[in-house]
């Protein structure tokens, strides 16, 4: 929804891209790399059939691509789009390979690469004096290299790895490894899936004394939260910066199928999030089967303004930013080309070849005063927020209270990268740690307490 909102916002703003209307194609790759390639080729060809090197587009130009969210779908997209020299901005893929500007000169992302997250994990482990960990990742094609990269970064700082496993359908061997483990900190990375999270749900008691450190690229924390939330109690997540988008909630309350009757993306969201019947009964049946619910007939009073997963989802701001960056680049390209009318209206091949140069030079402040620009790796530098999962009881009801005990920003000087500012935080088993103090002395020591090999040693 933030994608639609950003496009509408730009089209209503006369100061950006005057006399130009942005449109869009929206496809869901469903986490499938093959479908991502198919959808990409279909957009490029402008036809229902995928036809590389041929375009049926007559009225409009494909300016660029926003997506995907995961590395599984984004990497093959980038391989195709770099070949055809189309600009792509991802809002979630963190695979380190995508930082290679020689291979992917047309690729940008509103997140940082995994290597930044690995360094952040090391900073956190060293700060707490932890030197004995286990590693768990998903088993998709990109994660074997991830384990290798993460292991190299961790061991180069004197931290020992007890085990590293990949989540797969065979949980027995992995469960046996976890049961025998003596480390009490597990680093959890990889995009994962519900089926791959079964390791944690098969025997939740194994993890009751384990603190998980969850990478920003992993959705496994969210999956575990929905099934066995107490596994997460006392664990730590790195969360990307999110900002409230002005006007977004009002937009969500105003969007109805009646005022956007030909918007297939809105139709899909209407079924998925509000569980409303669509005029397309076949589509309704597909979503009912896929998401296991029964849709019902909805009135015009229904809207998206109360759906938190849409309003506060970590990717919403990334998508919104990606659209605005692309629009800013197009606007500046248009301004330069206005001096030469022929240049703006020349063939699409010349048009798309120039756009990524303008994306590189985009630099502005958003509504919250945050600087938006891409570094030399095509990444948006950002602050990582450290969140601690804590579950509390109120009148017998269990609820989650995410606390933010600190931040990490790798673009800051080394002695200022980690900021810990939360005192009296709770860790596993409701044990209270001593107060945490962040000091700026020469040896970066931590006054107040120290850990030995895990976050659980009090």
SSE blueprint:
Elements: H1 2-12, H2 33-45, E1 64-66, H3 71-83, E2 87-90, E3 107-109, H4 114-127, E4 132-137, H5 143-155, E5 160-166, H6 171-180, E6 185-188, H7 198-202, E7 211-214, H8 220-227, E8 236-240, H9 248-254, H10 264-274, H11 281-291, H12 308-311, H13 314-337, H14 341-344, H15 348-361, E9 363-365, E10 371-373, E11 384-388, E12 391-394, E13 397-400, E14 403-408, E15 418-420
Parallel strand pairs: 1-2, 2-3, 4-5, 4-6, 6-7, 7-8
Antiparallel strand pairs: 8-11, 9-10, 11-14, 12-13, 14-15
Note down, in words, how this protein is organized.
The model is unreliable at 49-56 and 430-458 (pLDDT under 50). With 458 residues, the chain is an alpha/beta fold. It has helices at residues 2-12, 33-45, 71-83, 114-127, 143-155, 171-180, 198-202, 220-227, 248-254, 264-274, 281-291, 308-311, 314-337, 341-344, 348-361, and strands at 64-66, 87-90, 107-109, 132-137, 160-166, 185-188, 211-214, 236-240, 363-365, 371-373, 384-388, 391-394, 397-400, 403-408, 418-420. It has 15 helices and 15 strands. Helices cover 35% and strands 14% of the residues. The relative contact order is 0.13. The chain is globular and about 65 Å long. β1, α3 and β2 (87-90) form a beta-alpha-beta unit. It has an eight-stranded mixed β-sheet with strand order 5-4-6-7-8-11-14-15, with helices on one face. InterPro entries: ANF_lig-bd_rcpt, GPCR_3, GPCR_3_Ca_sens_rcpt-rel, Peripla_BP_I. Residues 2-389 form the Receptor ligand binding region domain. This is Receptor ligand binding region domain-containing protein. Keywords: Glycoprotein, Membrane, Receptor, Transmembrane, Transmembrane helix. GO terms for molecular function: G protein-coupled receptor activity.
